[in-house]
Design brief:
With 334 residues, this protein is mostly helical. Helices cover 61% and strands 0% of the residues. It contains 16 helices and no strands. The protein is flat, with a radius of gyration of 21 Å.
Length: 334
């Protein structure tokens, strides 16, 4: 018995009967020889961490566009906080931590520059639409490794695709990430909004604070404990009704106070215009796309989709620099 097989046996003996065992994975799109050390979900996590799309998350907007200050979240730090929340819950519920971590680390790989502003812009101009969860799956399936993809397991891809409210993952591990994503962004977006002077802790309505606490840390701790307590021994991942209702009210409060705040979001119109302009430019200049995307064009991929692939993968900084290089006149040096 090799190391991987020993770890798979440990999962079988220790994990919850509701956990997804590595040995029971539905497999990959392209069959591969198993690693002798790592179970399949650990292998997926490693592939995601070593991917270019994961590294680019460090320069993609979470909520505030290219903020000045070292302590505001980026899409990468958001991803790490989702992963940490999810692993804490999974460990307590004896679920598969490797699967949870792989889904969490991969859930936003397809996110655009400038956060949801960039996503809205591409969704508006692309005839096929654009959603970051589907783009994250497309990233790992097709775009990574210059058009080869990283060939993740079905369970990880399912969790990535269904991490939004409208989705429902097929595994409990995926459902852990789905909830962890929500509590992570509610927690850290409020923390960043307080840091940026958009909110004060005292602005949180009393009806919410009385249920889940009056500080960011207290609320996060309360959410995680409630999920663990409510879900333990159950074939589902959920919050208790009162806490779920308070979370929904807090999320609505965040939309009204931060996500739709004209001060916090004053630059988003410019970001959307930049993304739309780049889209129109590259649609007219397909020859300027990277070679591996042009190869996909030869395989029958639609040009509109490939332009979205290129722009959607950009970091904030690279999108601005690309726009500047194409459209802003340069000083003549003679």
């Amino acid at each position: 018995m090799n190391i991987r097989e020993s770890l798979e046996q440990w999962e079988k003996e220790y994990l919850s009967p509701y956990a997804m065992l590595s040995m029971n994975s539905a497999g990959r799109q392209r069959p591969e020889e198993q690693c002798d050390i790592r179970p399949v979900f650990q292998r997926d996590r490693d592939r995601i961490i070593h991917s270019k799309s994961f590294r680019r998350l460090k320069d993609k907007t979470q909520v505030f566009l290219t903020p000045e200050g070292d302590h505001y979240r980026t899409r990468l730090t958001h991803t790490l906080e989702v992963s940490q929340n999810a692993r804490t819950i999974a460990k307590a519920l004896q679920l598969n931590e490797d699967l949870v971590e792989a889904i969490a680390l991969g859930h936003d790989l397809g996110h655009t520059p400038f956060g949801h502003a960039g996503e809205r812009a591409l969704n508006r101009v692309c005839p096929y639409g654009f959603s970051h969860n589907e783009q994250s799956v497309r990233t790992v399936d097709i775009l990574e490794k210059n058009g080869i993809g990283i060939n993740l397991t079905y369970e990880v891809r399912d969790g990535i695709r269904n991490h939004q409210t409208s989705g429902m993952p097929s595994t409990l591990e995926g459902r852990v990430v789905r909830l962890s994503d929500k509590i992570a962004y509610i927690h850290h977006d409020m923390d960043d909004a307080i840091r940026g002077g958009i909110l004060k802790e005292s602005d949180v309505p009393k009806e919410i604070g009385d249920v889940i606490g009056y500080s960011c840390g207290a609320r996060l701790d309360f959410f995680i404990h409630d999920i663990v307590t409510t879900s333990r021994g159950q074939n589902d991942i959920r919050m208790s009704p009162d806490v779920e209702n308070a979370m929904k009210k807090l999320r609505q409060f965040m939309f009204e106070s931060v996500y739709q705040n004209p001060v916090a979001k004053s630059e988003e119109g410019k970001a959307e215009a930049l993304i739309e302009t780049l889209y129109e430019y590259y649609l007219e200049h397909i020859d300027k796309l990277p070679d591996f995307l042009k190869c996909l064009l030869d395989k029958g991929e639609e040009p509109e989709r490939l332009v979205c692939d290129f722009i959607g993968a950009m970091t904030d900084r690279f999108a601005i620099a690309t726009y500047d290089n194409i459209f802003i006149p340069k000083t003549w040096h003679g």
